[in-house]
């Protein structure tokens, strides 16, 4: 029986779930570990007869299912038992078998602190499995090592039915995790209006503060979720809450015109500055959001430091500041590259691109970083972007020359398709010297 491979269970809150049983466990010389491996595979596949067979084998050997999992000497297994895998895969019958006949612990934690209930909501999200685990006494408020509880994940996924199940079985309405906030923050950021309404109906705090997003309204602005923003405002959320960033500042930086209009209509103050003293209209200008500047300009008090207090003047000033910042960050990237810190260099070039997307040389520089890190796909993508931006530009630097050569030889060197072509200026060897 081949171990199942799974690519589901993606979440921005927790590591992605993987139902692949550790190869070192399936190839173990220990009979007990082999029985555990077979049980894990059967549980993930929902094979009730096989799961029963291998669980009985462990019991007859004088060890329970949970004890056998805990005894496995394999870091790759991560102490995930058959109940974890069956719950994630939505296999209710196997879950029932393991709990009722073999007394599996419904709150057993893996090495990351995740319980079968967390696996259930992050995996298939089966209401049958979640309901079953709760019926068997699973703790709806047991968090993993990062402080994440099932309701956080459900708020991210937007499952109204699962949220109802958890709340009706004792889930706390406002559990806070410093890294991600409360379920209200998460639902608002991800635009899950139905779950957000349900949480508010259960008296969730619409102004709950977290270190990441400040308030749920700020989270809705970060996610550019107009519907969630409107729901929170209707629930009485403070439109000017948040430090160092108000929801209006976030919306201005994101270029979310609808959210800016919504906040202004609800009474948001466009003159509250951030920690550096910038007001929303300046933030919009720094981000190149000209239409947002036009909306915010009439409700912003003139600033004395601007010689030209006009829409054009603010946009022009923002562009100058943005390009200066991009130049500085680009220089930091160059310095990091010289020190062979390619990860930092690529990060700086990405930041510079966010500020000055017209500087095509940044793609060439970042392409060379990716090449040095052996990330061929990203290296080629950036090289292609550079070539498309500058189709007739001869190689004027080492990075640009290398980027050109990557485009010319991509088929032969990496994909095995097409024919290598002679690039302009390739006889100089300048770019080729750095291409490995």
TrEMBL record:
ANK repeats lie at residues 112-145, 146-178, 182-211, 243-275. This is Serine/threonine-protein kinase BSK1-like TPR repeats domain-containing protein. It comes from the Eukaryota. Residues 323-394 form the Serine/threonine-protein kinase BSK1-like TPR repeats domain. InterPro entries: Ankyrin_rpt, Ankyrin_rpt-contain_sf, Cul2-RING_E3_ligase_SR, TPR-like_helical_dom_sf, TPR_BSK1_C. The keyword Heme does not apply. Keywords: ANK repeat. Residues 416-436 are annotated as: Disordered. The keyword DNA-binding does not apply. SUPFAM superfamilies: Ankyrin repeat (SSF48403), TPR-like (SSF48452). The lineage of its organism: Eukaryota, Viridiplantae, Streptophyta, Embryophyta, Tracheophyta. It holds the Pfam family TPR_BSK1_C.
């Amino acid at each position: 029986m081949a171990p199942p491979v799974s690519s589901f269970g993606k979440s921005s809150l927790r590591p992605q779930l993987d139902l692949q049983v550790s190869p070192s466990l399936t190839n173990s010389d220990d009979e007990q570990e082999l029985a555990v491996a077979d049980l894990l595979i059967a549980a993930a596949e929902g094979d009730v007869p096989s799961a029963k067979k291998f669980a009985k084998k462990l019991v007859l050997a004088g060890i329970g299912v949970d004890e056998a999992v805990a005894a496995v000497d394999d870091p790759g297994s991560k102490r995930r038992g058959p109940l974890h895998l069956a719950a994630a895969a939505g296999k209710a019958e196997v879950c029932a078998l393991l709990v009722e006949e073999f007394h599996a612990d419904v709150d057993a934690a893996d090495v990351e602190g995740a319980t079968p209930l967390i696996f259930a909501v992050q995996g298939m999200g089966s209401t049958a499995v979640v309901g079953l685990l709760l019926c068997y006494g699973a703790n709806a408020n047991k968090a993993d090592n990062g402080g994440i509880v099932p309701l956080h994940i459900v708020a991210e996924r937007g499952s109204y039915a699962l949220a109802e199940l958890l709340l009706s079985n004792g889930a706390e309405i406002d559990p806070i995790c410093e890294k991600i906030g409360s379920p209200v923050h998460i639902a608002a950021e991800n635009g899950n209006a139905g779950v957000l309404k349900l949480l508010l109906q259960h008296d969730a705090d619409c102004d709950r503060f977290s270190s990441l997003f400040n308030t749920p309204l700020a989270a809705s602005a970060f996610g550019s979720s107009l519907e969630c923003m409107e729901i929170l405002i209707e629930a009485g959320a403070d439109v000017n809450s948040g430090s160092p960033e108000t929801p209006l500042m976030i919306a201005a930086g994101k270029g979310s015109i609808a959210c800016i209009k919504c906040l202004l209509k609800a009474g948001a103050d466009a003159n509250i500055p951030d920690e550096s003293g910038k007001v929303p209209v300046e933030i919009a200008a720094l981000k190149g959001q000209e239409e947002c500047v036009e909306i915010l300009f009439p409700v912003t008090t003139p600033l004395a430091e601007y010689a030209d207090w006009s829409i054009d003047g603010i946009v022009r000033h923002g562009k100058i500041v943005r390009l200066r910042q991009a130049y500085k960050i680009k220089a930091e990237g160059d310095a990091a590259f010289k020190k062979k810190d390619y990860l930092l260099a690529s990060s700086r070039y990405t930041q510079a691109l966010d500020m000055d997307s017209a500087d095509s040389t940044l793609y060439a520089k970042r392409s060379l970083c990716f090449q040095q890190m052996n990330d061929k796909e990203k290296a080629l993508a950036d090289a292609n972007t550079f070539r498309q931006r500058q189709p007739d530009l001869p190689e004027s630097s080492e990075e640009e020359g290398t980027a050109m050569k990557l485009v010319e030889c991509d088929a032969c060197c990496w994909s095995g398709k097409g024919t290598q072509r002679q690039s302009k200026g390739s006889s100089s060897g300048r770019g080729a010297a750095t291409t490995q």
